[in-house]
């Protein structure tokens, strides 16, 4: 029972809900500036804020295993820099809701990766939470769930690419947390991401300049759905199996829907409200089950160190 109580699925859900606030600032910025420029300045602010963590993090990652080093590179370059750029670009091409379809695909990708990389095993009971949550995310993403238009395909493709990279970050973050602290992962994620973005901007000749009107939005984007969410996320990930964590991340489209209704004037269809309720019930139900049940739905080492040993 002690291992069950240490589960932090609920904290992953809190962090993911903060990501849903990003549409307040990312959407307007995406209409005015290149996605790469927005994400570059976002990462620059985040690197500045986490600079005190960076030097000790660099020392620890240099002393870590090759597996952890590769994980950090993939998390920084792929899950932070490239995934966020793809997601930001999706806001320019589609509406604020369509990109959330990535949350429907991310759990499927992460579960497969967790099984291969971390040796996590799912009990049949997991489907009782996973299947409704995926259905709910689909209903929440599209006003007409059976009539997705071709015009949304390009934005959806960008979102799917971001989903795959974020799913990899979930699994590799848990693996790397066996040797690194959550503060190390946060600082290294942003630093590697910033270097990656600078290289891509140089190769593609993408202008990085932003107007003074963008400063407040970039700062808020970096502070709330950026730094605060990631600190909470990595603090939880070391004691949360990746399969549970990625389902709890469905709180992201849930909070995004709330922002759309309250702040952006969106008017969801009846099917979207149904999806909202289904996702909420599934995420809360999973968190309660993993904390209180004697037979949690995911059979996995409770500690990241044990997951690393199993992966070897």
Q: What structural class do helix, strand and pairing data support? A: mainly alpha
Spatial gap, N to C terminus: 27 Å
Low-confidence stretches: 307-312
| Count of helical stretches | 15
Radius of gyration: 19 Å
How do the strands line up in the largest sheet? 1-2
Mean of pLDDT:
82
Helix/strand order: HHHHHHHEHHHHHHHEH
Shape: globular
Q: Tell me about the biggest sheet?
A: 2 strands, antiparallel
Describe, in plain words, how this protein is organized in 3D.
Helix 4 packs antiparallel against helix 10 (182-204). The chain is mostly helical and 312 residues long. It has a two-stranded antiparallel sheet with strand order 1-2. It has 15 helices and two strands.
Which descriptors would you attach to this protein?
1% strand; 312 residues; 2 strands; disordered C terminus; 75% helix; two-stranded antiparallel sheet; globular; 15 helices; mainly alpha
What order do the helices and strands come in, and which of them pair?
Elements: H1 2-5, H2 9-19, H3 23-32, H4 35-49, H5 51-63, H6 66-93, H7 102-117, E1 121-122, H8 126-141, H9 153-176, H10 182-204, H11 215-237, H12 242-248, H13 251-262, H14 270-292, E2 298-299, H15 304-311
Antiparallel strand pairs: 1-2
């Amino acid at each position: 029972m002690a291992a069950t109580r240490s589960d932090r699925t609920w904290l992953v859900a809190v962090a993911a809900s903060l990501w849903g606030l990003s549409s307040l600032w990312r959407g307007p910025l995406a209409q005015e500036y290149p996605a790469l420029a927005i994400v570059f300045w976002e990462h620059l602010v985040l690197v500045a804020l986490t600079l005190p963590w960076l030097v000790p993090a660099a020392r620890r990652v240099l002393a870590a295993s090759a597996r952890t080093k590769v994980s950090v590179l993939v998390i920084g370059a792929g899950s932070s820099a490239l995934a966020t750029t793809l997601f930001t670009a999706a806001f320019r091409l589609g509406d604020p809701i369509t990109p959330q379809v990535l949350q429907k695909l991310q759990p499927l990708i992460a579960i497969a990766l967790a099984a291969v990389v971390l040796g996590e095993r799912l009990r049949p009971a997991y489907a009782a939470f996973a299947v409704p949550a995926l259905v709910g995310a689909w209903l929440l993403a599209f006003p007409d769930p059976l009539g997705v238009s071709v015009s949304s395909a390009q934005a959806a493709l960008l979102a799917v690419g971001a989903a795959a990279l974020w799913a990899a970050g979930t699994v590799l973050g848990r693996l790397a947390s066996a040797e690194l602290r959550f503060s190390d992962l946060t600082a290294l994620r942003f630093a590697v991401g910033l270097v990656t973005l600078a290289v891509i901007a140089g190769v593609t000749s993408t202008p990085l300049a932003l107007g003074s009107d963008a400063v407040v939005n970039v700062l808020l984007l970096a502070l709330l759905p950026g730094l605060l969410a990631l600190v909470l996320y990595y603090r939880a990930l070391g004691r949360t199996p990746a399969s549970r964590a990625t389902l709890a991340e469905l709180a992201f489209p849930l909070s995004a829907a709330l922002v759309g209704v309250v702040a952006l004037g969106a008017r969801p269809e009846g099917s979207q409200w149904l999806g909202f309720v289904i996702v909420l019930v599934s995420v809360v139900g999973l968190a309660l089950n993993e904390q209180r049940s004697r037979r949690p739905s995911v059979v996995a080492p409770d500690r990241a160190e044990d997951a690393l040993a199993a992966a070897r």
